[in-house]
Amino acid sequence: MKSILVEVCAGTHCTMMGAMNIMDAVHSLEEFQEDTPDMCDIQVRAIPCMNLCRDAAQGPFVRVDGKLIPQAESESVMAAIMARCHQLDGKE
Ligand code: FES
Question: How many domains does the chain have?
């Protein structure tokens, strides 16, 4: 099964910048995915500070299959997940 790893930084800075809202949005997508067999399998993990937050304007940070998304928002993370899923689809 096509699987996508979404890592959401749960460090203090990223949490204050809205990382948990992103986490909630990805969890909602996970629930949706259970009813949608064609959808990629989404694994979401909270990870510790990636030490990228020295520049306070850049957070929150999320990685989608290793691709870093700075200043992440729910919409940009969803778009990255869907793009990655389509990309994996094309390879099969
Ligand atoms: S708290 Fe997210 S990179 Fe440091």
Answer: 1
Asked if residue 50 lies in contact with residue 12, where contact means CB atoms within 8 angstroms, the answer is no
Q: Which of 7, 9, 62 to mutate to test the pocket of ligand 1 (most atoms within 8 A of CB)?
A: 9
> Whole-angstrom Cα distance, residue 21 to residue 90?
30
CATH number, position 36: 3.40.30.10
Does residue 56 carry a pLDDT above 70? no
Cα 3 to ligand 1 centre (Å): 25
Q: Per residue in 21-39, pLDDT tens?
A: 999 999 888 777 777 767 7
Report the predicted TM-score, pTM, of the whole model to 2 decimal places. 0.90
Q: What is the DSSP letter of 48?
A: -
Pocket of ligand 1 (CB under 6 A): 9, 11-14, 49-53, 59, 61
